[in-house]
Amino acid sequence: MSSIVPREVDVARLTVAAIIPTKNRASLLAGIVERLLAQTATIDELVIVDQSDTDDGRIAVRRVLEAAPASRRPALDHVWDRAINGAAAARNVAFDRAHSDVLLCVDDDMEPAPDAIERLLQHLAAEPQLAAVTPVITNYEAPALTHRLVSQIFFRGPFHDDRQPVYWRGAGQRERLVDVGMLGAGMIAIQRSALAHIRFDPRYRGASLGEDLDLSWALRARGGKLAIATDAHVIHRKAPRPASRHEEAMLTSWGFVYAKHQPKTLANRLAFAWFVTGVATTAAVAALRARSLTPLRSVRAGLFNIRHDYSRCSFLTPPTAPTVDATGAPGSRRHNLVV
Fold it and tell me: Which CATH architecture has domain 16-236?
């Protein structure tokens, strides 16, 4: 999909709720609120779901809002609840509290360009079939050639992440709206009408992985289109994570959403088996180079999670009794994978 957004598109009719999940990062929270208030498009609602140990974030936000012109101050809904566990759960709380036409999820470590929201709204107004759109992240560097080759060879079908090449090309791309199969949740504008009763899976907890795939595939299942707006820019200041092997996280996060969302056709089963083969192959190479079994143990842990309903996964809660799934329909929270 490509589109040149006409200048005459009027986005004033679209109301916007900015949704910020945050925990123990008061300075980052204040910074993103300042950037949102400085946007060329006005924010109507500001819904902050704060899981912090103290109310420092609430105080910082209040100071930012008091310093802003009255005409730029959105209606504030600041939820401070330490019992909420993780960004996915926090966004679900905000989805149920916001009332605007467009729900703009934005993490506190994102730095959007001053016109980023206006451009996202223009695309949503010009392309009504869009369920969700994100800006292009301009500070992601292309990985090494070997990494790209592995991705091209082993990550096929639903496991092909078509977002990454768009990020690597950054700003200045010819197509202003690129159709993709999945979006990141760090900064994403979602049509409320497309979201309906879709929520992030309630099993996600803490610093979870894969919830963006869960949301993307649920939106697509309802017929929604997803796109990256390359004329809307954002910088992602990633917070450092503890050093760890990635194989377990990859197998667990992708396996969970695959089992939940994708039809088990022969093509998809083969694509999943090939994906696992790719992860295992690269882990074997890493093990030989490091003369360590740690990468292979990481693969084994990921496969254990898949086969045992993710009961040992750090970012998914143990399975519970049947509840409502992310599409809004009654169903079991168990997503046992059959290859």
Answer: Alpha-Beta Complex (3.90)
